[in-house]
Amino acid sequence: MTVTQEVTKIDSLIRMVNYMARMNKSRPNARKSQTMYFDMLVEYYSRIRDAKKNGEFLASHTVFFPTEILYAMDIVPMHTEMTTWLIALFLKEQANLLSKSAELGLSPEICSPHRGVAGILASKYIPRPDAVLWSNLICDNTAKSGELMMELNGSPGYFVDNPFQCSQGELDYLVSELKGMIEFLERLSGKKMNWNKLSELIENTNTEIALYREISELRKATPSPASILSYLELLAADYMFPGQAQAEQYLTRFRDELKEMIKNGIGAVPQERFRLMTLFIPPVFLIAYLGSLYEELGVVSVTEPMFFQWPEFKLDPSKPLESVAKKSFMIPERRSMYGPLSDVSLQDITDCAQQYKIDGAVYWAFMGCRHTCATIKIVKEKLNEIDIPMLTIDCDLVDPTITSEEEVRGKVEQFCELLEDR
Length: 422
Description:
By secondary structure, the protein is of the alpha/beta class. It has helices spanning 9-26, 32-49, 67-72, 80-91, 94-103, 112-122, 140-153, 168-189, 195-218, 230-240, 245-263, 287-297, 320-330, 332-337, 343-355, 370-373, 376-384, 405-421, and strands at 58-61, 76-79, 131-135, 157-160, 274-279, 299-303, 360-366, 390-395. It has 18 helices and eight strands. The protein is globular, with a radius of gyration of 21 Å.
């Protein structure tokens, strides 16, 4: 029997990313790590596109899902939120996706990446997955979107319940949840867990987390060497490629580039004037614009404590499943976005402010993320205690009708004037 390949927006996404990779290679001063990032995306989505043709099992999953398990079982993963972001970024399909989600009855107050997920599935923009996997990390939107994905796909699914705290009992509970998911996937896919491969992935993940820590340390330099353009790259390496050789190679190259820039006294912008802390995620569709605007204004985002400040810990490859569970309790985003906002999380933010010698902070108030927006006043008051001003910009991650380039420019320019007068 011949299996025909579905024609989806994944083909267009691959072509566009390939084009970006070729353009990057033609620029004499382009970062090699950025070209590696584009190549990683092409490989990732080519495998998704060809999964059915190659007889592979395709599983869609929500953010912060333990993808190491899928890689260890040789199951093709598809990160739904990142796919929505990248279709919005590279193909400018936001309007179609959000319009389709509105037809399904999803209100504008719901997180737009999850509305986008509904849109891409209902529009058949992506191949139909063989299974849907989701959890309650990091919010209610994530917990509910899995059910909607099952309904739209007609695919079987599995929900992983993540506890809020990290006691031994809750760690054991999460391990039992992961065991249940593995059994579900083994029955459905006919594939068995390769425990040796999972152990290798855990060892690789240790290396990657160490590289994230090293990159964070390098960004303390004056001038700081990393542009805000790397934000999405670092997220993709973490969210889509945990334990994979590509992620380690990309992070190693990026670290080495930062080291070389520091050695030569080169910063991310020609003249560093203001060092900013970025809180939450800037609008994905504005990343390139922000890169140009920050360069023009001499602004550098030197730290993003909600996303890239990994705590000190080491996973044990001899206990791979326990390590996967432990990692889910250690992700930086969890400290400020899942469960109660603790004094420890707030102290992390003020510590970063002092260690990175920031001049100010920008909180991207994503209207669809109710739990992070609820912390804005608390974070602002905490930074005020150490005399750090904070700019809040209302925005949406993928919907350009909420925040325009002109509005962002005006607010950032005004904030820079305030910083200059201090």
